[in-house]
Amino acid sequence: MIRNNDTVSPYQIAMLIIMSVISVGVFSIAADAADAAGQDGWLAVVFAGVLNIAAVIILVRLNARFPGKTFVEYSQIILGTIIGKVLTCLFAVYLLLIIAFVTRSFTEVVKMFLLFRTPTEVIMLSLILVCTYIVRGGVECIARINELLFPLLFIPFIVILLFGFPNMDFSNLLPVMQTPPEKFLTAVPTLAFSFGGIELALFYIGFMREPKKAMKPAIIAVAFLIVFVTAITAFCIATFGSKATILFIWPLLNYIRSISLPGLFVERLDGVILSLWVLTVFTTIVSSYFIVSYSISKVAGTKEQKQYVLPLAIVIYYLALQPDSLAELFEWGSAIFPYAIAFFLYILPIALLLVAKLRKQGVH
Amino acid sequence: MKNSKHRGIIALLVCALLLTGCWDKIEIEDRLFVLAMGIDKTKEEDKRTPEDRYTISFVSPVVDMVKEGPGPAYKSYKTMNNTVITSLTQLLERFSQKQFYGHSRGIFFGEDLMKDEKLLKGVIDGISRYHEFHNSMYAYIVPGTAEDVFRVEPMYDKLLMPYIAGITENSDYTTKVMELTLSDFIIMLTEQNGAAVIPKLTPSKDEVKISGAGVIKDFKLAGYLGDQEVAVYNWLTDNAGGGNISVEHDDVSISFRHFTFRRDIKLTKVEDGKIYINYDLETEGSIDEYMMGKKVLDEAFLEVIGRDIEKRMIGESEKLISKFQEEFRVDLIGVRDYLSKYQPRLFRTIEKDYEKYFTDNIVISVTADVHIRRVGIIR
Amino acid sequence: MGFFSSRKGNKEKKENEMGKLLNSKSLEENTRRLKERLKDCDDIVYKEFRVGKEQDLEFLLVYVDGMSSRDLLNEAVLNALMVHAREVPPDAKEPGEELYKLVRYGGLPASELADKDNLEDAILAILIGDAVLFIDSTEKCIIIGAKGWPMRGVSEPNTESLIRGPRDGFTETFRVNTALVRRRIRDHRLKLKQLRVGKRSFTDVGLFYIEDIAAPELVEEVQRRIKTIDIDAIIESGYIEQLIEDNYISPFPQINVTERPDEVAASLYEGRVAILVDNSPFALIVPTTINSLFQSPEDYYDRWYVATILRAIRYMASIISLVLPALYIAVTSFHPGILPPKLVISIAAARQGIPFPAIIEAFLLEVTFELLREAGLRLPVPIGSAIGIVGGIVIGQAAVEAGIVSPIMVIIVAVTAISSFSIPNYSLSVAFRMLRFTLMVFAGVLGLYGIMLGVLLILSHLVKLKSFGVPYMSPYASFIGSDFKDTIVRVPTFLMGKRPLTLARNTIRMKNNRHLINKLEKEGNDDDKK
After folding, report:
1. Which of A82, A208, C63, C501 could form a disulfide with C68 if both were Cys (CB 3.0 to 4.6 A apart)?
2. Which of B172, B229, B166, B245 is nearest to B197 (CA)?
3. What confidence tens digit (pLDDT) does each residue in B231-249 have?
């Protein structure tokens, strides 16, 4: 009855993965995909997604070897205390950058569409503080809020997406597979990185009672993501055509703005979708934020993670204010994240799993 | 203790945030809703500075008068400026209210503006870049100046823009009205490298007429399509719904009303570097009017009429196709779209110099298929 | 510090000594002691009487006037001892032990008797409403259960009226209430643990639970929390509620309060624990989740379509009552682009000439409405309805015509008010009302974004909140598939075969009998054909 505060259920793992991946990226992915592979962009997204299923299988395998332990603990077991701690710190820094990036790009969007004169600082700080409140609640609260927000986000989101059907012309997706293969293949890795966020499972699976049970929900989560992101990409390209999709910074936003519902209370949906955007950003920030404070407390050897949360808010705020403009922000993003995600999502788990297997560490 | 201290700090911060102000609050009555915009090229003699390239006119409702009071409930005003978006802020120098463009339902381009490539590109870029405009507003070309549209006082409607939008939405019932949203216009310009067809709106004293269309090539107005040509254009681009086709029979017009219209494009053959393409038009509807005393509900008779209608459709379509091929020399009837989507290999070979290829080496034939399903309620 | 603690210690010591105050053998001495302790308690009746052939056996009956049933005392004590003793004189040679036994086991035709040799206990019994019989020459006294004060009859609960369902509600009398519950659960596994809480009020507090359904940890925890209460008096169950709830800062009620015995019984069957408090017609039910606050007993009595639709309406009502004014502020002052042009124009026309910004307008009207509601609640019913008329005219007509508020704002406030009344739980609707004002501030500063942040903050809080170890948002945010049968949707009753897994231990509740019924029906049809 009075349950342990530190467990995450398999269902919650799926929610965590989905909600961490869906963030500002979904609004721009159609442009990236169309830019890289033209009308085949949606296929490139499918391929990229399949790559991530492989990644997530490795993640779960790795975690299953060390039940009850998160990345902080088993990286120290596998590679030794010092290297483990350094890796954890790197991970935390990377997550801080992600949070800062998401916060900042979200703030820019809010400033552009909703609040023009409100100072950037206010928009940002209010968001970070709201996140701080839930992060202090611990892993169980993080898992639960993700679980709760999943239907609240996706049901309206999908309904709104379907309202756009009359504007779509699926012949815009033709011809299929006519992109030159070399161009197509170079598109796949760049798109694979827009699934960044899955690597958080390195930690969250560790909070499960039986990490082995994470396999099914994790794969389902990634499959759901593939379907969702592919649908978004396909819808955008079908609506605008691949050439016009590239015009927009956030094609999904334009897609939703092009929907009008005459005769209802709400005619334009952009305000609604931006409110939903807050949800996606919130969950992404919260899931990463907790891991940062958790890893710091583990590395420092303290019991509670609470005390680090508020000071971290200041760090995030400072980092998020660094880029000068949206262009600079995007440049920073593309300079850091693909490499970081490649390292933490693909290279590191594979390396750790291999070493653990060779050294025969953990449970088989 | 520590916990409550933290809570205190957070509460203080939140309060500080909340109490410092409502930066973006603009009460709804302090806004001036711009329902439509007209953009013209400034005439040389009106220019105050050489940069005053655009004359922009706006129309806004007088909200009190919408429900009560006689006469039209809107006012129009205009300004001159070097870019469209700058002019929006310029209005703040003259109005106590803040203009709001989120409800703009129409944008009117003056003829002169359309003839100037640079100006048109500027306008399109500005409007698609500015967040407040919705791309689902309707776009029109106005012969003369766009400003003239706002002088119209419609007979039955209190507001101008809902009146014009209403006419545009009638396109479901008549093929002669063409519907084009700004977003479709921009997409068409992007996909066709600066070519598009945009409906023509002609203002008069107490009404406007949407008929005919402007053809744009390389971001420049290349010419106009007539009333009937717009209908045919709608057939060929598969945008037709309901409408009328009439044929002469015994010196009397027979009116055929169609409710659905379908177009199929097929590649028939490739020969000697020429591409043969067939447009198949298929429609169904009813005979509305012929002559008292004649029996219409008659298989043989209907077949004859059907063939006449088919002939007429084919003739008009071919005329318009050759107009595009020979006069405008631009492919706005969907051949490129078809080839690139369904014949990608073939298209790749001709992609480079497509415009030239279209005029010289693509041969288009038209077939039609008319089903007269009903004849009304008398025989 | 030391000084205080030593004084406190002395005081306790003194009380203990007095607690051991034993009865004396002499009735005279007992009477003197009693009168000393109960000095200036003028509602206490001392009835001295003598029995026996020679009128030599002395008795003393003590009770509080008005709290004990005089009929019962007359019949079972005075009549029995004074009249019948004359006919069949007590066969006791001498007063003392023997007489005592005779009276205790033979003389008193009352159903509830107990012995006490402690004066302090005897006094407590008197004050609770029992009568105490002292007999000369014995150290023991007899406590006669004669509680019988004027009480309200069982009547229909005012705060939770139903169209369909039992009409009985709890009263202020503990024993009546426990009986109402027991009548619905005739199972020996229904346990009632009684505690006395309040150092001066000695209020009866009863803990109901079904032994093999409720989790023992839960029962343990509830008991522990109630036992730690150290207060002089419990006037109402609200005292207990506030003293044992998990989070005192939260605006949300973490304990469900009900006047309906059927709801208590149903909760017990789900594995919850009910707390009944004397002098209060409100029972407490723990643990409580937000889902259970949206349920009404009627949901289970009506058919499932009806229940599901009503639940959906309630959830919708709660959302409306939470965000509607805030949305109005956000949309009119920040994002008019969301609304269709025609609506925007009519709102703008309605707001022409109104001197206040939307947020002040909204606050004005909302506060006026809250005032009206509170005033109407406190006044006697006939005047209360007058308040409604005044409010309707003042807000609906005069304020609009004077151009202080816009008619659309009046509509918004009215819809909000109606919505907040459709939430079945009163405390929950109060919580939503409070949060509504917070959200209005958020919306006034940051528009839609502010509302979203506010809503996220509320959701975060709800997710953090626990009621006696059960997540407040379960089963929405601790996903257990089978518990979803009784949330926004209420599935047909034959599918509700399991108790909520978050709470109960013994989860199977019934076997699905639908296929059996279908089979019988089919056989019946076959017979008809023959």
Report:
1. C63
2. B229
3. 999 999 888 888 888 888 8
Does residue C492 have a cis peptide bond before it, meaning omega lies within 30 degrees of 0? no
Interface partners of C (3+ CB pairs, < 8 Å)?
A: A, B
In DSSP notation, A309-341 reads HHHHHHHHHHHHT---SHHHHHHHHHHHHHHHH
Mean pLDDT of A31-48: 87
Q: In this structure, what token pair is assigned to residue B265?
A: 């494009």
Give B258's strand partners: B243, B285
H-helix or E-strand spanning residue C385 = helix C381-393
Q: State the Cα–Cα distance between residues B370 and B283, nearest whole angstrom.
A: 5
- Asked if the Cβ–Cβ distance from B190 to A112 is below 8 Å, we say no
Q: List Cβ<8 Å contacts ≥24 apart for A153-160.
A: A153/A19, A153/A22, A153/A276, A153/A279, A153/A280, A153/A283, A154/A228, A156/A272, A156/A276, A157/A273, A157/A276, A160/A256, A160/A259, A160/A269, A160/A272, A160/A273, A160/A276
Would you say residue C274 has pLDDT above 90?
yes
- pLDDT tens digits along C75-95: 888 888 887 766 655 565 666
Mean pLDDT of B256-266: 89
Closest approach of B83 to chain C, Cα-based (Å): 24
* Range 314-343 of C in CB contact (< 8 A) with B: 332-334, 336-337, 341-342
Using the beta-carbon criterion (under 8 Å), do B187 and A241 form an inter-chain contact? Answer: yes
Q: Where in chain B does DSSP place strands (E)?
A: 31-33, 36-41, 54-61, 74-81, 98-100, 106-110, 138-142, 196-203, 208-217, 220-225, 243-249, 252-271, 274-289, 362-374
Strands of the B36-41 sheet, one edge to the other: B74-81, B54-61, B36-41, B106-110, B138-142, B196-203, B208-217, B220-225
pTM of the model: 0.89
- Site from B6, B13, B18, B29 to mutate, C interface, most C CB atoms within 10 angstroms: B29
From the CB of residue A105, how many other CB atoms can be counted at a distance below 10 Å?
24
Q: Does the CB of C209 have a partner CB in chain B at under 8 Å?
A: no
Altogether, the residues listed in chain A come to a count of 364
Which has the closest alpha carbon to A241: A38, A60, A43?
A: A38
The CA distance from A59 to A68, in Å, is 14
Separation CA C85–CA A198 (nearest Å): 91
Number of CB pairs, chain B paired with chain C, less than 8 A apart: 71
